[in-house]
Amino acid sequence: MDYILDNVGEWKDRLVNNSVKSFTEMTAQRWIRIIVIVGGYLLVRPYVLKAAANRQKRQLDKEAEELGLEPSAEPNANALRGGGKRSKAVEEEAKSVDGVSKTKTRQRKTQESNKEAE
């Protein structure tokens, strides 16, 4: 057990020593190199991720076609809400009476009856 603790202490000392030395001995050329590498990564990363997503989508579409399924399509808002079809009951309730919907009329009558009850 003592051997493991000695190794962990030595690793910590080496890590601290190497970290401090690497920052104190940095030249302008090394700083520029680090900035170029990090900046290049930040600029290229979105394009690489988009290309990977497109490749994965093509692969999934190909597998779906082989299995006889329809290829994946982007979901639209109507599909998420139930296909965009409304039942007749909903449509009839939504029809307006003299420019005011039934819901608003019902709400106004309720408020008037509440005022009369007071």
TrEMBL record:
InterPro entries registered for this protein in UniProt: Trafficking_Pga2
Annotated Pfam families: PGA2 (PF07543)
Ranges where the record places region Disordered: 60-118
The keyword Transmembrane is assigned to this record: yes
Highest taxon of source: Eukaryota
Biological process annotations from GO: protein transport
Transmembrane domains' residue ranges: 31-48
Keyword annotations from UniProtKB, A to Z: Membrane, Transmembrane, Transmembrane helix
Compositional bias per record (Basic and acidic residues), positions renumbered to this chain: 109-118
Keyword Cell cycle: no
Name of the protein in question: DUF1531-domain-containing protein
Taxonomic placement: Eukaryota, Fungi, Dikarya, Ascomycota, Pezizomycotina
